[in-house]
């Protein structure tokens, strides 16, 4: 039987760029001691108090069908949180509860794009972005954000592709680069969306992991509340990645239609997970700060080690749980360097090329192991980079 092109073509064909990650997983399974600095997964589990709240909600009977668009008590809490954090009045009618940020991205693109529409996104990008766009039948169009601009998108590059596009997807604080888009960048993006009548889909799942500057939600800019769909989640802020709980914020009409989509796809989120999410949000800013603290500390550790040498350069790590490193002085691509690092030192990092073409010659380091193990792994990375830069004959490509 023939399968639909929409599902067989999700990844666009060829490698998805995650070969190093898959090799590292295989080596771990074979018994090798691998330091995994690949994916953005906390090295702590979900807090016991949140799990207890989930358990209690299960025993209390929250195991049946929930509201397809999210239970009112959770939508009220998310609306209050967004209002407090952004200063823009937000009500439950602006909130759709979804099973994680990824489901929010899928719903948002369904709301913004018809079959065959052009949907823009910034490169480097989170790995699922182009596949999500293809999954709704739209055509993904990557807009490179260049290393010489510290991966801040150039509005002129966006403008060159904006005519006729239905949507633009951005992510700040950014995965994979750790960059936070400046107010000037976001204001220029907002102007382009207004000028070209585009939806702006703003992935803000890292908004509590901010180390330098401040996070600005573009929904708060003039004329943007009616054309912005914001993706949020408890995965990163509350270490609840496996609970699959997030939201979309947008204008009420769009949210209502996405609620109808949920009726025909996810059929809602488990009630006991929603009750645990309510409990988690009630813990307040101090709880979120405690979740974020290790990543700030490890970011500072990595940047301190980078400053002590002159081969590897760090992209400004303003937020999120990653540091992007420029290893072009080694003469290798990000993929070749990451492969060599895994083979020689059993340290797994993600090649920049895993996130598109713009970050070629870079690697992404996830700050997701304890400080001592992270420091050892980074020392191996820096030693390898120094050896390759000093003696190109040691390159695995020779």
UniProtKB/TrEMBL annotation:
Q: Which GO terms describe its molecular function?
A: L-aspartate:2-oxoglutarate aminotransferase activity; pyridoxal phosphate binding
Q: For the Aminotransferase class I/classII large domain, which residue ranges apply?
A: 33-381
What does the UniProt keyword field contain?
A: Aminotransferase, Pyridoxal phosphate, Pyruvate, Transferase
- Enzyme Commission identifier(s): 2.6.1.-
> InterPro entries from the entry?
Aminotransferase_I/II_large, AspAT/PAT-like, NHTrfase_class1_PyrdxlP-BS, PyrdxlP-dep_Trfase, PyrdxlP-dep_Trfase_major
Q: Which cofactor does it need?
A: pyridoxal 5'-phosphate
Q: Name any Gene Ontology BP term.
A: amino acid metabolic process
The answer on whether this UniProt entry bears the keyword Cytoplasm reads no
Q: Which CDD domains match?
A: AAT_like
Pfam families xref list: Aminotran_1_2 (PF00155)
Q: What class of enzyme is it?
A: transferase
Highest rank taxon of the organism? Bacteria
Say yes or no: keyword Hydrolase present.
no
Q: Which SUPFAM superfamilies match?
A: PLP-dependent transferases
PANTHER family, per database record: ASPARTATE AMINOTRANSFERASE
Family under the similarity heading: Belongs to the class-I pyridoxal-phosphate-dependent aminotransferase family.
- UniProt protein name: Aminotransferase
Q: Which species?
A: Roseovarius litoreus
Q: What is the lineage of its organism?
A: Bacteria, Pseudomonadati, Pseudomonadota, Alphaproteobacteria, Rhodobacterales
């Amino acid at each position: 039987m023939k399968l639909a092109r929409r599902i067989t073509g999700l990844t666009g064909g060829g490698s998805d760029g995650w070969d190093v990650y898959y090799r590292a997983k295989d080596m771990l399974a074979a018994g090798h001691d691998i330091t995994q600095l690949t994916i953005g997964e906390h090295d702590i589990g979900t807090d016991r108090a949140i799990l207890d709240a989930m358990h209690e909600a299960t025993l209390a009977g929250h195991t049946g069908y929930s509201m397809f668009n999210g239970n009112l008590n959770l939508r009220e809490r998310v609306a209050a949180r967004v209002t407090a954090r952004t200063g823009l009045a937000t009500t439950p009618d602006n909130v759709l509860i979804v099973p994680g940020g990824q489901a929010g991205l899928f719903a948002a693109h369904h709301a913004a794009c018809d079959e065959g529409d052009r949907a823009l996104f910034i490169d480097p990008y989170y790995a699922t972005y182009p596949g999500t766009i293809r999954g709704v039948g739209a055509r993904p169009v990557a807009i490179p954000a260049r290393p010489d601009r510290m991966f801040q998108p150039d509005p002129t590059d966006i403008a060159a592709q904006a005519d006729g596009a239905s949507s633009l997807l951005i992510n700040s604080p950014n995965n994979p680069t750790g960059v936070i888009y400046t107010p000037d960048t976001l204001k220029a993006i907002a102007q382009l969306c207004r000028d070209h009548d585009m939806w702006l889909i703003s992935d803000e799942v890292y908004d509590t992991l901010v180390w330098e500057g401040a996070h600005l939600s573009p929904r708060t800019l003039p004329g943007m509340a009616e054309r912005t769909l914001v993706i949020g989640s408890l995965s990163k802020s509350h270490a609840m990645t496996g609970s699959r709980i997030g939201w979309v914020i947008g204008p009420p009409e769009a949210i209502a239609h996405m609620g109808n989509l949920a009726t025909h796809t996810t059929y809602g989120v488990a009630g006991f997970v929603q009750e645990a999410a309510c409990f988690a949000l009630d813990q307040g800013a101090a709880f979120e700060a405690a979740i974020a603290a290790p990543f700030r500390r490890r970011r500072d550790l990595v940047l301190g080690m980078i400053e002590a040498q002159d081969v590897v350069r760090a992209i400004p790590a303003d937020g999120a749980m990653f540091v992007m490193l420029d290893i072009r002085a080694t003469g290798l691509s990000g993929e070749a360097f990451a492969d060599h690092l895994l083979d020689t030192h059993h340290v797994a990092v993600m090649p920049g090329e895993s996130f598109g073409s713009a970050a070629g010659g870079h690697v992404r380091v996830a700050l997701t192991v304890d400080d001592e193990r992270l420091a050892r792994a980074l020392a191996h990375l820096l030693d390898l980079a120094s050896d390759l830069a000093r003696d190109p004959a040691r390159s695995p490509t020779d």
